[in-house]
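User: Run a structure prediction on this.
Assistant: Running it now.
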Amino acid sequence: MMTNGLAVDRRFAPLLSRVAPRGGAGTALATAVTAALLGSLLLAVSAKVQVPFWPVPMTMQSMVVILLGMAYGSRLAVATVGLYLLEGLCGLPVFAGAGAGPAYMAGPTAGYLLGFLLAAGVTGRLAERGWDRNPLTAVAALTIGHALLFVPGVAWLGALFGMEKALAVGLYPFWAATLLKTALGATLLWAAWAALGKQRQG
């Protein structure tokens, strides 16, 4: 099945395929490449921008990872996050801190970087099953996505420093921000689909 130039073989087409230009295989490839480049840039920007919050400042990167999954679908979202990680592996300054390169990616944040791929893929799959169309299921999908970020992240920190410290520095300070980003992400998804519906009605 082709929807707006993007191949979709599931019941629900992701948001991107509803707004992307219609066309054949060449248009679909151009759309996917452009979306991946823009998505990786958005991930880099979201990593650098810190929002004052309690108990620690927050970035919007985890929300962006998950929303890319929900908007792009599983395959393109994983490719986009993979491109972002490749940029970091090559030494480009795309991560939250100043570091980059192979050594940085094998350090304490390695589990979270793996979680980016897991979250993008799984939330993309959920979106392809229509979880992004309803506010309640969107909240559930975002919650699952955040869990998939934290589980490998905290597990890797635990392997390096012990689980007590891993929970203290890698999970507990981020509960409040995660709840906020989950609510915000679900609201943005609902607003995007509502705007698309109104546009079609008009």
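The chain is about 70% helix and 0% strand.
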